[in-house]
Amino acid sequence: MKRYIxxxxxxxxxxxxxKVVSSDVLSVQPVTHTGTNTLKPGPTIPVxxxxxxxxxxxxxxxxxxxxxYRIGIDVSAWQEExxxxxxxDAGVEFVILRIAWSGSEKGVLAEDTCFRRHxxxxxxxxxxxxxxxxxxxxxxxxxxxxxxxxxxxxxDRSLQMPLFFDWEExxxxxxxxxxxxxxxxxxxxxxxxxxxxxxYEPGIYFNPDLAGRLLYLEELTDYRFWLALYGTxxxxxxxxxxxxxxxxxxxPGINGDVDLNIYLNYNMEExxxx
Length: 274
Description:
Blueprint: E1 55-58, E2 61-64, E3 69-75, H1 84-89, E4 94-102, E5 109-111, H2 115-124, E6 128-135, H3 140-154, E7 163-167, H4 181-197, E8 202-206, H5 208-214, E9 224-228, E10 242-249, E11 258-264, H6 268-271
Parallel strand pairs: 3-4, 4-6, 6-7, 7-8, 8-9, 9-10
Antiparallel strand pairs: 1-2, 3-11, 4-5, 10-11
Helix pairs in contact: 3-4
């Protein structure tokens, strides 16, 4: 089905959850799916080496006491006016920008109206930049279309951080309410593989509830994991590269609330596509 591109906004609500799994070698068995879906046998998923005691909140910013990390934010057109130099001066080191999104009711595609301006401002202030696509794809074909759309907006812009596939459940009344684990996982893989082909580092954004019900995580270990889990403790068993720990942070240069993140074991060279 061909989806049409229109410039409208979509308010995205994050679902959160918490699953505690601990093991020296984390197998795929602890995670179960609802309905008739179960995890397939396969290779182990990398274990999260961090415990809640490895993190500490310094004001609004999370710090990691046991490894390298960077502090960052993610923004969209909902943060229309940003003083990027103030953001950088406050200690923010990276930003994940919403590039585009698809509608939940009809799957229409739309560019984030602030992406280009945010990209220029963040880059000029010296921040490292990544991106995300807010997806409502219900098939791998739609996920491929979304990837192509995001890449067409990026053009020749470089990203020092990953380009993430962000699929979220918004309402049981929308067309996405019948997603199954096989289709959802294939949507992720289709998007991420196209991103990789284009020379960008792919990643996936999820919360523990969605991951436990709709993803075969053992098939997605080649991609960066961006976890949405709000609070001061990260009780999550699988590997996490980027942790979004609040959607109500405050940063100089941005009016109102903003999502705050901590990037763990940060390696710029691995994500730089320049």
